[in-house]
């Protein structure tokens, strides 16, 4: 039993104890080779491991390799036990000690591989469930003629019928083969208990430069109205969405005939509006259910946030549909998921524009504090949360490219800008909602996307995200 235990600790040790020098040396050599390769990858090529972790084929081979290593260790344990020179223990003590040692050997042998295999299977299932594979070719999609639209109840709205109208949707080329930026629309939806439909109360356009690692975050206020839409849609005479922008997703879902293509109609509608608003093409989107964000923060053990101004809400809507009082004084906090969501979501006593800043800071905090050890420890909960609360059109084939940009990211080069009054809005609607100042918005977005982060920050008088959230 001692030889079996030694081989469970490291293949070959039990064989050496049994006098099987050649077999023991061979097993130890194989084990050391595996350890050396693993250590090299962890310390010198961590991006390689991360890249494998977002490719189902590579994960499949890792699962097979995990099973093969378990088989090798099991062989070493059984061989060490069978060829042990120790005689069979007898007596009452043996009847207790031998089964106990057997359980220890089995645990040492099986548990690491069971844990690793389960994690690999969860990872593969997450990737194939949430991220869709890219089509082999990107054929254009032509929409049918638009002939009518459903009113959303705004006074004075008129519907324009179009005799013929087509829109073409193409999938962009692989951005990392050139110098283009990657623009992803990050959305937070408020679907949950007691609410009908989905409103995108968090709208952030994230733009990444794959060459320099510069990142720009453009926060779009939820209450900005009359966001422009492509003229080809011809739904309203203003060529805009008359209501506030956080209702555009729901409008698209209720009127899918206007937004054909492979994307969900709500995503297609909102992307069309944000592209016209910012003048920047959007390549992909990611929608997170804000209630699911609670589970994500809890899964990583909470998040550290510095609150600079008191946050008070006497009627905050809890995730379960009830209401409660939220009162957060200035200071440093380690927030659980519920409190972090309240911090990012409430606007009583402040406004939508203050809230967008808090949302950017919360994103930064979660990203910076989700270290590999924490993620590994809570991987099962994290994957289940992502599967149940994330909707995206980012294809699997793009994930390895995204991994490659991670080492270049630097909070000091993240440009954060809120497209809010008074600089980026114009006249107010009859309901006192702000309308966009397209000239100012397009100019600011072009400046941020055309210049290095430091120069854009200086030109627009901005703070980095790290400075904004300190």
Structure description:
The protein is an alpha+beta fold and 470 residues long. It folds into 2 domains: 2-130; 145-470, 3-Layer(aba) Sandwich (Aminopeptidase). 46% of the residues lie in helices and 17% in strands. The chain is built from 17 helices and 16 strands. The protein has helices at residues 2-9, 13-17, 21-44, 46-52, 56-82, 92-130, 248-254, 265-278, 290-299, 337-345, 352-369, 372-377, 379-389, 399-405, 438-450, 453-460, 465-468, and strands spanning 141-142, 168-169, 182-189, 200-208, 215-219, 225-228, 240-244, 284-289, 303-307, 311-317, 323-328, 331-335, 390-392, 414-418, 425-428, 434-436. α4 (46-52) packs antiparallel against α14, α10 packs antiparallel against α11 (352-369) and α15 runs antiparallel to α16. Residues 136-179 have low confidence and may be disordered.
Count the beta strands: 16
Shape: elongated
Strand proportion, as a percent range, falls in 15-25%
What is the number of independent domains? 2
Strand order of the largest sheet: 13-8-3-4-5-14
Tell me, what is the CATH class of the largest domain?
A: Alpha Beta
Helix content: 40-55%
Structure classification? alpha+beta
- CATH H-tier superfamily of the largest domain: LCP protein
**Low-confidence runs:** 136-179
CATH topology of the largest domain: Aminopeptidase
* N-to-C span: 58 Å
Largest sheet: 6 strands, mixed
Overall radius of gyration: 28 Å
Question: What is the number of helices?
Answer: 17
The CATH architecture of the largest domain comes to 3-Layer(aba) Sandwich
Rounded average pLDDT: 82
């Amino acid at each position: 039993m001692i030889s079996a235990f030694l081989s469970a600790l490291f293949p070959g040790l039990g064989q050496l104890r049994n006098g099987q020098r050649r077999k023991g040396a061979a097993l130890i050599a194989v084990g050391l080779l595996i350890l050396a390769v693993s250590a090299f990858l962890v310390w010198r090529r961590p991006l390689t491991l991360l890249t494998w972790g977002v490719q189902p084929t590579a994960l499949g081979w890792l699962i097979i390799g995990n099973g093969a290593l378990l088989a090798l260790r099991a062989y070493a344990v059984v061989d060490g036990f069978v060829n042990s020179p120790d005689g069979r223990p007898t007596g009452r003590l043996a009847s207790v000690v031998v089964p106990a040692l057997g359980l220890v050997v089995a645990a040492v042998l099986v548990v690491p591989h069971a844990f690793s295999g389960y994690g690999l299977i969860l990872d593969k299932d997450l990737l194939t469930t949430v991220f869709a594979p890219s089509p082999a070719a990107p054929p254009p999609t032509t929409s049918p003629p638009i002939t009518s639209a459903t009113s959303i109840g705004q006074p004075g709205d008129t519907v324009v019928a179009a005799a013929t109208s087509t829109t073409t949707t193409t999938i962009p080329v692989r951005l990392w083969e050139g110098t283009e930026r990657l623009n992803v629309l990050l959305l937070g939806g408020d679907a949950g208990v007691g609410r009908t439909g989905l409103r995108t109360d968090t709208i952030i356009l994230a733009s990444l430069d794959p060459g320099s690692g510069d990142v720009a975050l453009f926060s779009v206020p939820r209450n900005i109205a009359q966001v422009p839409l492509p003229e080809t849609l011809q739904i309203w005479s203003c060529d805009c969405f008359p209501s506030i922008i956080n209702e555009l997703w729901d409008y698209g879902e209720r009127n899918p005939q206007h937004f054909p293509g492979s994307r969900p109609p709500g995503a297609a509608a909102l992307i069309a509006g944000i592209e016209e608003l910012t003048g920047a093409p959007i390549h992909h989107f990611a929608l997170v259910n804000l209630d699911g964000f609670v589970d994500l923060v809890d899964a990583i053990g909470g998040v550290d946030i510095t609150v600079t101004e008191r946050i008070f809400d006497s009627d905050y809507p809890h995730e379960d549909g009830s209401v409660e009082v939220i009162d957060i004084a200035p200071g440093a906090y380690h927030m659980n998921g519920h409190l972090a969501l309240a911090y990012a979501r409430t606007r009583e006593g402040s406004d939508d524009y203050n809230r967008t800043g808090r949302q950017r800071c919360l994103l930064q905090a979660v990203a910076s504090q989700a270290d590999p050890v924490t993620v590994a420890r809570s991987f099962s909960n994290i994957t289940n949360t992502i599967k149940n609360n994330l909707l995206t059109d980012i294809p699997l084939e793009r994930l390895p490219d995204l991994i490659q940009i991670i080492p270049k990211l630097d909070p000091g080069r993240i440009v954060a800008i809120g497209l809010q009054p008074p600089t980026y809005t114009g006249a107010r609607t009859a309901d006192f909602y702000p309308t966009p100042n397209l000239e100012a918005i397009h100019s600011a977005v072009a400046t941020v996307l055309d210049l290095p982060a430091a120069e854009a920050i200086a030109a627009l008088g901005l703070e980095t995200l790290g400075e904004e959230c300190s």
